[in-house]
Amino acid sequence: MTPATNTEHRIPNTEHQTPNTKYRIPKFAVLPAALLTLVLLSGCARERVAVTVGKDGTWTRKTVYIATGPEVSPGGSKAAEVGKYFSLPSGEGWKLTEQKVKDEQRVIAERTLKLDQTIENDIAVRETPKTDLLPPEPDKKLGTVLLRRDDPPAPTRILTSNTATVRQVTPGRYVYTETIHWIGDPPASMHTLDEKQTALVKTALPAQLATDENVKFVAGTFVREFDLALVGPPSPLMHRLPLFMNAPEVFFRLAAKRVGKGLMSALKEKFADQMTDEQRRALTTILIQGIMEDVKANGPSKAGDAQSGENKKNSSGASIFISVRLPGRVVETNGIADAFSGDITWTFYPEAASFGDVTLTATCDTNARSAAH
What we know:
Layout: H1 33-41, E1 45-53, E2 59-67, H2 78-82, E3 95-101, E4 104-113, E5 118-120, E6 160-170, E7 173-182, H3 195-204, H4 212-231, H5 241-246, H6 248-271, H7 277-298, H8 309-312, E8 318-325, E9 329-333, E10 336-337, E11 343-348, E12 358-365, H9 368-372
Parallel strand pairs: 1-8
Antiparallel strand pairs: 1-2, 2-4, 3-4, 5-6, 6-7, 7-12, 8-11, 9-12, 10-11
C-alpha cells in the first residue's frame, strides 16, 4: 500500500454526451450485499487501537473491543459478549480490563513493548454471529412453534490475523508497520459484473484490446478497486455515502481519486503503450461515472437483501480504527496525518484484507534538524 497523494485527474464532462459517443455510461448494480451489510451491522462491534511510541522506541498499545446492540445481555460477562465478535488477546504482557459504557460492553487490552518487538493477533475478528431477528411464521393448524436453540451456540470462525511492530531504521528514525491478513473464506456476495455490464466494459476499450480476456481483466480490476475503496483504509468511502445524496460531485471526486489511481496503474502495467494515458483516463472515468449514475437511479438497496444469512457469511460486522502517535516529525505514511493532534489514523472494515494484505505504515524522524522542520 502506497502513501496517498493529492493528484487529481481531469474528468471528461459526460452530461451532454449521447449514447453514440465514446463516453457511453455503463450501468452497474452498485453495492454488493455483503458490503452494504457492513454498514448495517458495523454498529454492533468496533475495535479501537491506540499506539504511542516513545523517543527510545518503547511503545504501548491499547486496544478497546466494543460490543453493543441486541447481542449484549445485561449483567452477562462482558468478555463473553465481546468475544462473540473478537478473539481477545492473551498471554504474557497483556492486561485486560472489562468496562460498561451505557449500552456498550467493552474489554480493554493493554501492553507495553520494546523496540523491534512484535504484537500478533489482537485484530482477530469473528464471523458475524448468527441470530434469529424474527420468530418463524406460526402454523395456522399447529399454532405457535417453539424452536430449540443449541446452547451454547457453535463458535464463529476467526476471519483475520495481524502483526504490528516498531523498528528503528536509522538513528532517531522509527517506522511503525502493521499488516492485517484475511484467513477466512472470501466474503459472500462480493461485487461482480453480469454479462450485460461486462459487454458495456468491452465497448469502452479500444477496439484492438477488446478481447474477452482483457474485458475480464478490466472488469475484475475495477470491481476490486471500487470495493476496496468502499471498505479499505485510510477512510472507507462507505462512510461517505450520505455525501453522495447531498453533494454527488464531491463524492464522485473522492471515488475518482481512490479508484482511479489503482485502475490507471493496473491498465498501464497490463497494456503498457497499447493504451495512451488519455485512453486509460477516459476508460476509468466511464466506469466510475457508471457507478455514480446507478447509485443515483437505483439506490444502494439495488444490491440485495442485506439482512439475509448468506450475506453475513464470512463477514465480520465490525469496524476498525487505529491511531498512532510517533515521537518525531512524520516524514511518510499511508494513513491520515492529523496536524492538530499529531496522530496518524486509519479506518477500515476487516473485509478489506480479503482483497490482499492490508499494510499500514508511518515513519518519523526524531533528529533535531528534522524536528525543527
